[in-house]
Amino acid sequence: MSEDTRMNAGEDTKTIRIMLVDDHPLVREAIRTRLNAVPDFLVEYEADSMSTALMLLSQKHIDVVLVDIGLRDSNGLDLVTQITHEYPNVASIVLTMYANQEYVVRAIREGARGYVLKESPIADILAAINAVSLGGTFFPQHLVRFLRRSHRDSKEASLTERELEILKELVQGKSSKEIASALDLSIRTVETHRKNIRNKIKAESSIDLLKYAVRLGLVKL
After folding, report:
1. How far apart (Å, rounded) are the C-alpha atoms in residues 45 and 121?
2. pLDDT in tens, 109-166
3. Measured between alpha carbons, how far is 45 from 57 in angstroms, rounded to an integer?
4. What percent of the chain has pLDDT over 90?
5. Is the dihedral of CA 99, 103, 109, 111 positive or negative?
6. What values do phi and psi take at 11, rounded to 5?
7. Which residues of 112-131 are buried (b: 16+ CB within 10 A; e: fewer)?
8. Among 14-28, 120-134, 206-220, where is mean pLDDT lowest?
9. What is the reported pTM?
10. Between these two residues, 38 and 147, which has the higher pLDDT value?
11. Which residues, at least 6 apart from 167, have a Cβ–Cβ distance to it below 8 Å?
12. Which residues share a beta bridge with 66?
């Protein structure tokens, strides 16, 4: 079997080179074993951090990256953002245990081509890889239904890009004056955004703001 192709029924077929990015070795081993048993799939590279993944991407030919959200040195969605901007020919699939609406929405916004839960059947992972390798996307129907239902029930929780910026500053303990200076806004504007953020996500305390920011992936505990 060559590195570039595998023989299938007497014809050359393109091997899909895959990189697993997950900080749990046993998880990577289980996924690698299942995927390498599939003709034309090759898990050739593995990483447990964003820095290692980016190093491999800069040096190797990789078609599809399976990314967990919780990595050793970062949020996996930040890696998706980097891949989207720096390696547009590489398809990212988020493979995670989290079905949070915020994660799914952000993954799509950052350029992920697929989103699959780790508890899903292996068939979903295979379908996702096949879909994105052909230029498509893969978002399981139960997640799509979940998003639509959550969107209908929680429209008030959608924060604007400016509100997300301010939320990130707030949970770092910065004052309205410091945020205003950092974002080149007036203190009054920042105070208005703070009030809108609290109203939208129904936050009664700074802890509520922090929990929401963590779910969005803006900060890590």
Report:
1. 23
2. 788 999 999 988 999 999 999 999 988 888 877 666 655 555 444 444 578 888 888 9
3. 10
4. 51
5. negative
6. -120, 150
7. bbbbbbeeeeeebbbbbbbb
8. 206-220
9. 0.63
10. 38
11. 159, 197, 209, 212, 213, 216, 218
12. 20, 93
Which two structure tokens, joined as six digits, stand for 172?
């770092």
Neighbours of 10 (CB within 10 A): 5
